[in-house]
Design a protein that fits this description.
This protein is of the alpha/beta class. The chain has one domain: 2,3-Dihydroxybiphenyl 1,2-Dioxygenase, domain 1 (Roll), CATH 3.10.180. The protein has three helices and eight strands. The strands form two sheets. A four-stranded mixed beta sheet has the order 1-4-3-2. The protein has a four-stranded mixed beta sheet with strand order 5-8-7-6, covered by helices on one side. It starts with a strand and ends with a strand.
């Protein structure tokens, strides 16, 4: 395996670009009509694709918009300063689900929802 790409389907790509640029503190390395990608630690990338784009690519799938308001994915990132990432996400428009708290699996984790309803988790080992 060379690289892992995680792709989230988003309603408004320009709004999601601003959200993830502010939250991650990164500019996308790929930004073309229908797709943008951010480099993540460990060699993975986070892609943002318009909901209508996946429908054109794979028309037999149900529309991701049918799942609006239902968490469809979780992006779990281990970072050096989860409190700062969580605060940036909230400032960029995320809705807080849980503040940074110790979890029984040995990490402190904060949870929020991005504007498309994807769960974001920012974590650090205790």
């Amino acid at each position: 395996m060379k690289t892992a790409h995680f792709i989230l389907y988003v309603m408004d790509p320009s709004k999601s670009k601003v959200f993830y640029t502010q939250t991650l503190g990164l500019e996308p390395y790929l930004d073309v009509p229908g797709m943008m990608e951010f480099s993540l630690p460990g060699g993975a990338s986070l892609g943002l694709m318009p909901e209508r784009g996946i429908q054109r690519l794979l028309p037999d799938l149900p529309s991701p918009s049918r799942g609006s308001g239902i968490p469809r994915a979780e992006l779990y990132l281990e970072v050096e300063d989860p409190e700062a990432f969580h605060a940036r996400a909230l400032q960029a428009g995320a809705r807080e689900l849980s503040p940074l708290l110790p979890r029984d699996w040995g990490q402190r984790v904060a949870y929020s929802l991005d504007p498309d309803g994807h769960v974001l988790a920012f974590a650090l080992a205790l």
